[in-house]
């Protein structure tokens, strides 16, 4: 009996030492505006299949409109989602956040706009033409009570909007600085700029880029491909603090006829830091 106990001890220790993990996806799903072969009705099943196969704990989407969210919710019953239209209400683009109902619980959530008046829905500043916003939440892992904060966003897209993108990054950084210093944070989004840009530098002064730090990385290093399958920019990022990146991947799934979106989704897996042992 003693021998069996001794043999079983390392296995028990291994399970006890297994890190608590968090799998995060960022996915610009492309609006349903297309009327050609890339229209939403041709893509939605494939997109839902990619999410199902990857099974992220939480996913930040961009360019999501309400009917797309409803379609995905019907195909992803294991997920709940929340979000608000960028002009307020249910109209226009949402920064929709999907999360596994069996893994996470929402403790708090909200929205703010990337403008000089961030609490005003639909507000625009800094010379770009469309409202931009952040949808955020504080989540708790059902399994162990660990918490983290997710921010999800979509920055202005035009070449001439770089100064506005810097302002967006500065406002997000200001908000992040107000969070507890020991709280894990994940920032997902389509930032419409590259890793050598001022917005990336502003955000990575506080956060780290999972693509640059994860020990295991797969897929192309660029994400926007305009439905061609040949990406030319890495504008979709998963940034973080207070977590240990394990893997990151750019996903290039397609069904032979089309891609689920004009962006490749990015998925990263993180480990939470080990908890301090309880004092005797």
From TrEMBL:
A Pfam family it matches: Exo_endo_phos
Keywords, alphabetical: Endonuclease, Exonuclease, Hydrolase, Nuclease, Signal
Endonuclease/exonuclease/phosphatase domain residues: 25-263
Coiled-coil ranges from the UniProt annotation: none
Superkingdom of source: Bacteria
Keyword Signal among record annotations: yes
Annotated InterPro entries: CCR4/nocturin_mRNA_transcr (IPR050410), Endo/exonu/phosph_ase_sf (IPR036691), Endo/exonuclease/phosphatase (IPR005135)
Signal peptide: 1-16
GO molecular function, one term: 3'-5'-RNA exonuclease activity
PANTHER family: CARBON CATABOLITE REPRESSOR PROTEIN 4, ENDONUCLEASE_EXONUCLEASE_PHOSPHATASE DOMAIN-CONTAINING PROTEIN
Name of this protein: Endonuclease/exonuclease/phosphatase family protein
Species of provenance: Pseudoxanthomonas winnipegensis
């Amino acid at each position: 009996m003693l021998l069996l106990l001794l043999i079983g001890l390392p296995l028990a220790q291994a399970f006890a030492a297994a890190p608590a993990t968090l799998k995060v996806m960022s996915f610009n799903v492309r609006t349903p505006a297309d009327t050609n072969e890339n229209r939403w009705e041709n893509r939605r099943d494939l997109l839902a299949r990619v999410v199902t196969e990857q099974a992220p704990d939480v996913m930040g989407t961009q360019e999501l409109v309400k009917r797309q969210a409803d379609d995905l919710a019907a195909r992803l019953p294991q997920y709940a989602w929340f979000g608000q239209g960028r002009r307020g209400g249910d109209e226009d683009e949402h920064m929709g956040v999907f999360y596994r109902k069996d893994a996470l619980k929402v403790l708090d959530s909200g929205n703010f706009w990337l403008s000089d008046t961030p609490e005003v829905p639909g507000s625009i500043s800094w010379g770009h033409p469309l409202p931009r916003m952040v949808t955020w939440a504080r989540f708790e892992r059902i399994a162990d009570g660990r918490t983290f904060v997710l921010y999800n966003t979509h920055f202005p897209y035009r070449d001439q909007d770089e100064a506005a993108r810097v302002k967006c990054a500065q406002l997000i950084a200001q908000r992040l600085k107000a969070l507890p210093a020991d709280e894990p944070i994940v920032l997902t989004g389509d930032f419409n700029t590259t890793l050598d840009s001022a917005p990336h530098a502003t955000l990575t002064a506080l956060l780290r880029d999972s693509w640059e730090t994860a020990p295991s990385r797969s897929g192309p290093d660029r994400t926007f491909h305009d439905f061609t399958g040949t990406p030319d920019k890495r504008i979709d990022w998963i940034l973080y603090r207070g977590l240990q990146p394990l893997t990151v991947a750019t996903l290039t799934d397609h069904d032979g006829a089309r891609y689920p979106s004009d962006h490749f989704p990015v998925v990263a897996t993180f480990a939470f830091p080990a908890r301090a042992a309880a004092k005797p």
